[in-house]
């Protein structure tokens, strides 16, 4: 029997690495500097948060199965707190958040959110 946490971690890491490569490829094609806007930190932080939140949900899924949705929302709230602590002050230095800054944070955030949502949905269907 394969370990769902390990499978999720591996799948998420691979997918976010691919998305990161595509993101850098698009920036390169558009002749935009590749490693600005804290893009590397954004992908790393989002990957770590997704794995930690998934792990917490996985560990708590049996004991708190009726509250998993709320725990998932708490995880999303945690991601926003991290954004406002780590990224927002840097992005607002010039009093404007550019599309590139937004994309640097939002793309890995959205990919992680989709992966978490799909996994949580599968669990909830199996637990019923």
From TrEMBL:
The chain crosses the membrane at residues 12-34, 40-60, 67-90, 102-124. It comes from the Bacteria. The keyword Membrane applies. Keywords: Membrane, Transmembrane, Transmembrane helix. This is ATP synthase protein I. It comes from Flaviramulus multivorans.
């Amino acid at each position: 029997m394969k370990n769902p946490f390990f499978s999720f971690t591996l799948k998420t890491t691979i997918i976010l690495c691919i998305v990161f490569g595509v993101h850098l490829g698009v920036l390169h094609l558009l002749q935009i500097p590749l490693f600005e806007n804290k893009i590397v930190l954004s992908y790393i932080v989002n990957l770590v948060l997704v794995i930690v939140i998934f792990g917490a949900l996985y560990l708590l899924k049996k004991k708190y199965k009726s509250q998993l949705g709320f725990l998932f929302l708490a995880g999303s709230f945690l991601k926003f707190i991290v954004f406002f602590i780590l990224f927002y002050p840097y992005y607002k230095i010039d009093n404007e958040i550019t599309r590139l800054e937004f994309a640097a944070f939002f793309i890995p955030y959205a990919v992680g959110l989709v992966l978490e949502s799909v996994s949580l949905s599968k669990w909830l269907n199996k637990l019923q």
